[in-house]
Amino acid sequence: MRCIRFVLKFLLVLCVVASCSTSQKAERSVKVPKGEPLWLYSAQEFCEGRFICASAEGDSKSESDARALKSLAGIFEMQVKGEFKFSKHSFSGEEQTQMEEYVEDNISKKIDLVLKGAEIKERFTKNGLNFSLAALDKEKTRKLLMTEVRDIDSKLKHFYGLKNKLYIKKLNLLYNERMLLNEKLIVVDKSGIPAPISFKEINDLKFTSGGGSKLKFVVGSDVPESLLEKLSEVLTEVGYKLTKEDEDFAITVSFKEKEEFLNVEGFKKFRFEMTMKASNKAGKEVGTYQVSIVSNGRNKKDAFLKIRKKFISRVEGNIDKLNLQ
Fold first, then answer.
1. Do residues 142 and 182 make contact, with C-beta atoms less than 8 angstroms apart?
2. Which single residue of 14, 126, 244, 311 has CA 20 to 30 Å from 20?
3. Residue 151's pLDDT band (boundaries 50, 70, 90)?
4. How many other CB atoms sit within 10 Å of the CB of residue 290?
5. Beta strand residue intervals within 44-109, DSSP E
6. 11, 128: one domain
């Protein structure tokens, strides 16, 4: 039994499927014992370029299924071919570690979404052992990853186009996230997608005149805690250290909500409004941005949670209107 386990473990290799030429097929051809599936000995030949496959064994079907799915996930494990790239002299060692963890966490969440499409394609039992073949549709996976990469590319071009060193941290985060995600794309599409912005171009933003480092952050008592936390993250991501001391610039944040008429039983309608005002050290207002969104819910909290992400997204894309330069 131990001998059989060893041989089968050796043969059940985790394989990423590629299109097969005639000569490759000849090399992959194996003799399959009568009554046994080809994938047990050559998952790559069985999948024929349509899937990303991985197989595993177990003492039960559930165990072999779980191991096969885990092996499939292993193809997309966090393996950085090169080091993370960060603009020199822009971040402390602690900041870089936090940024790496942030990027890796984002990638893991995106890969988890990709792996939701995985399924057990085949099962087989031999000599009391269970074998499972897990697979991801290659074309669907490619399209999903390409969509994610292009979404990051759109953000890269937007923030780089602002030509402001205020956004160096945000661009560093996006660039590294894109680098890792493109590596995952290369697993299913060897060419990947060339980056629209080079790291050198991002790094050169250090020498522009715009942007700052410290920002006095003044928050009204009505600002929801959940919104305040996300707002702080956005400002920190784009390169600011928030303080309560007097700095060259300050941002004052206020928030209010108002219930509006809604003729639907069991639901209420609210208008949520947040105003951000920027001022210089002399107290002169230099910029302002306001977000106003209407939402329905069973109560005020429920209605607000539905649009919190939209609030943050709008702020993130319009920070330049605060004229913090």
1. no
2. 126
3. very high
4. 13
5. 51-58
6. yes
